[in-house]
Amino acid sequence: MGRTVRLRGYRRRHMGLVLRYVHEGKVHERFVGFSDVSTDRTADGLFRHVKNVVEEFQMKDKLVGQTYDGASVMSGHVNGLQKKVLDEYPHAIFTHCYAHVLNLVLQQGLSNIKECRIFFQTLNGLAAFFSKSSKRVHALQDFVARRLPTVAPTRWNFTSRLSNTVQKFRPQFTDFFQHIIENSENWDNDTTVKAQGFLSFLQNFQTVFLLEVFSKLFGYTDVLYNVLQSKVYDVLYCCKKIDEVSKQLLHDKEHEFDNLWGSAVSNSSSCDDQRHKRIRLMDEQDERNSYLTLYQSVVESLRMQIKNRYSSLSKLEFFQLLWHEKYEEFRKQFPDRLLVKLKDFYGSLFDYIRLKNELLVLYACPEFSDKNVHKLVGFMVENSLTSGFKEVFRLGELILTIPSNTASAERSFSALKRINTCYRGTQTHPIKMATIRHCMPVACEDIMDLGSTLGLKLRTCWTLIELDSGVWDLGLLWLETSVG
Question: Average pLDDT of the chain?
Answer without folding.
Answer: 78
